[in-house]
Specification:
Length: 311
């Protein structure tokens, strides 16, 4: 949507295949979803190498520009006629491929799912916690702007100013959300005083962008709270819930199950739950950003034999 809006704002007129470069460039980093079983770890983790400064921003845009150039040459050799009538300008094509590609990790880093911007040199995750993963208001804003712009363009009227205004509103909306998150985090640190506050996340809900779900690590446990900008700020803080990651059964489950090991390469706030039975234990590992233990939306589970009497 961002790539398309940039094109409708006027950039697609800079070169033939300009809109394709913006839209494909803006989606290109998600090619890593096709490499889930790759032996190389950065490609085995979504939002890793292809979303980083090296893979996503430096390496992939020239590849995209080259493929679009080759496609253009092939189409011309077959006598194709392009509705835009624009010649292909390789410099602009490369520049728009870069611009589209940059928008993807910049938008992703605004969510709590985080991005490995320095992959493959570092596995550190970066996040700003400013947007929900699928922000309805953002989608509506861009979809309406693009739709109106396309209709005006088809009727021969001025069509660039509406997407330009939408992009300006988008930047303001992102800034407002970052300010809400920063205010929520400051409220937690004020409450904490001398207590350690590590890996603090302020997660926006799907619609109420003025609210935040707060979770952070305090030693070997997690605390939670809520923040509502319109209702007086921070709510009550929960008791500290243990991570349980040091339990012997959890460590053994991680050793045996490759799904857990892969999950832990991505998880920033891992939290385990153990349900013991007479002959086995059910171990679940989730990420505290998205719920507690097995109630986490992305939790993984396995059953570990314990070898009790009579089993």
């Amino acid at each position: 949507m961002v790539g398309w809006a940039l094109g409708q704002a006027g950039l697609k007129n800079k070169t033939g295949k300009g809109l394709a470069a913006l839209i494909l460039g803006a989606n290109m980093p998600d090619i890593d979803v096709f490499f889930g079983h790759a032996p190389w770890d950065p490609l085995a983790i979504h939002r890793g190498f292809t979303h980083g400064l090296v893979g996503g921003i430096l390496v992939m845009p020239p590849v995209l520009a080259a493929l679009l150039w080759l496609l253009d040459r092939w189409q011309i050799s077959r006598g194709a006629r392009f509705r835009s009538g624009l010649p292909l300008r390789l410099g602009w094509l490369l520049g728009l491929s870069y611009l589209g590609a940059i928008t993807h990790p910049l938008m992703d880093v605004l969510t709590t799912y985080s991005v490995q911007l320095l992959s493959p040199f570092s596995d550190r995750w970066f996040h700003a916690g400013g947007l929900f993963i699928i922000d309805v208001w953002l989608w509506l804003l861009l979809a309406i702007a693009i739709g109106v712009s396309k209709r005006r363009e088809a009727r021969g009227r001025e069509w660039q100013r509406i997407p330009q205004a939408a992009l300006a509103i988008l930047l303001g909306y992102i800034g407002l959300n970052l300010l809400v998150s920063a205010t929520a985090k400051a409220a937690v640190r004020q409450w904490a005083g001398e207590r350690p506050v590590d890996a603090l996340f302020a997660s926006p809900p799907p619609l109420a962008f003025w609210r935040r779900e707060l979770v952070w690590r305090e030693g070997d446990c997690y605390r939670r709270s809520r923040f509502d900008l319109l209702r007086g700020g921070r709510g009550p803080v929960s008791e500290c819930q243990p991570t349980n990651m040091d339990l012997s059964l959890v460590r053994e489950a991680i050793r045996r199950d490759p799904r857990f090991r892969k999950f832990l390469k991505w998880s920033i706030l891992p939290q385990a739950e153990v349900d013991r039975g007479p002959c086995s234990a059910r171990i679940a590992i989730g990420d505290a950003r998205y719920g507690e233990g097995r109630r986490s939306r992305l939790a993984r589970e396995t059953v570990l034999p314990t070898g009790g009497v009579g089993c």
